[in-house]
Amino acid sequence: MEMLRNLYRRRLRTGLTVLGIAVGILAFTVMGGMAEKIDLIIEGGKAYFTHRIAVRSTGGMLRLNLLNPDDIEAVKAVAGVQEVETQIMLPMDETAGFEVTPRFLVGVELPGFLRAQELAEQGGLRLREGSWWQPEDRNVAVLGSAVARKMNLGVGDTLEARGKEFQVLGVLEETYSVPDGWALIPQADAREIMLADSSLLQALGLDGFVTNAYALVDPAEGDLITERMASALRQGFLLYSPQQLAEAAGQASAILNTAILGSGIIAVIVGALSVVNTMFMAVGERTREIGIKKAIGASRWDILREFLLESVIIGTLGGLLGVGLGGLTISGINWLTQGQGTPIFLLTGRLAVAGILFAALLGAAAGALPALRAASLDPVEALREY
Amino acid sequence: MTKEMATSSRVLEQGLDEALLMAVNVTKHYPMGVRALDGVSLAVRRGEILGIMGRSGSGKSTLLHILGCLDRPTAGEVWIEGTEVTGLPEAALPALRLRKLGFVFQSHNLVPSLTALENVALPLRYLRVPVRRAMEKARAALEAVGLSDRVHHLPVQLSGGQQQRVAVARALVNDPALVLADEPTGALDSQTARELLALMRRLSAERGQTFVVVTHDPLVGQACDRIVTMVDGRIRPAV
Fold it and tell me: What is the pTM for the complete model shown?
């Protein structure tokens, strides 16, 4: 109570100090919101790739990064491969420019694709609404969540892409990863678009070719099966085991998080310097009071605790305000960029708690030196102050 | 032998049991050769109001600080209730002040952000007395000084005299053996000063409370049971 009254008596100064911390925590929260989103995307990616070995062609001199049907059969024949998921992946709109979640038309073959989703467990794509098409259906689509949101499409609507129309049969659950930007279509439709766009491919007559393939495997055997696959296939393939993909994702996540959170933390530390200043001023102003308290029997610890608590209160108030403002900023930016289909920032419970705790701890750290000074004042000297 | 010296010697001879407070040959030197106290000896009996008078710079406040364990002498001993406090480690002194001593200063005695009741309860807070019990005792102490209608007022809402009475209540709330007052009437008009002195006399009579009062106010002198006068860091022999 006493601490709150002391802070209230100097409310302008307290307010400005709290604001200093709040601005820092605001930066921390917004930056952290971005890191949390990136984390989620990477975690989604990791889940997706846990059961998958990615198979890509280097394309050789012509850079035709395609896999032919014999290659797919060779992958299927490797011991331990449970299913092969083939895709023809094409940019949905080549004029779209930068997209947070890039949109692709992805041609897949049913029912093999659905079996692969079952085998991939938590890394499998699942329907949120609607249904899948039948193997012989054409010009139909199942949309990733970001595509549905960005293009404002739902079951029963028509997706227009690359000069063709697709009837939307279903929408996928959000994965927070790359597949949110996919529109899944029958592979025959995708092949038609691929061939129509390339006179070279038409001339070569590359029928049955795909752009990507994923071998579904038991995650515990990922590395072993990747090695087997490497020796079974002819030259000119790039293979990525689940472990390699997870490691690469983990490294990217760690570097990004350090960079993003680091800049937020610097902002908070700058804010904390105002707490140091405020608390030193408070000690200076209340020297007489400290002298009286010591005279009547307050120990060093009693005085230290009083000043520390005050700075922790300042830090916590700054943290609460900063997280609140950060939440508003994140909501605002996400609302402004909702056209992208995917929110850019994500305010999680752990981020909010971390922001408030960080501010409180920093308050304590910033108040430590002034509090020590107060606690070590000589009572006789302090009593001379008026 | 002077009257004061004779009294001190008598108490010293009677032994520690008789004296609540004893200072034996207390000396305080500062760097550059300044002698604030130069061999001061005195004894205070339980229930006595002792006045220490003298001009500014005579060493009376330094003596009060040493008697109150706020400062240490360069040489000599101070005994409170049979314990030699000058030999105690630094860390033991706050607890000693908390349990055995009460303080009243000239002005700005109170913590501005605390109400009268909270100011009085402050020593009990440091003694870790449960809040409800502390508030009861603080309320009773304020009642004893006639301020039961001002318990929730902040210092800024009280007159100078009322503030000093709150300080007296705070000094008494932990039932100390000894209350040390440094110019307690220094910032009061004569009427308010008389009222405060009457209060101290009443508390001394009713509770047997011992006071040591540093002052240069003759009015305070009249209210004391005994006066010692300090000149240049020594107790002046009476003429």
Answer: 0.74
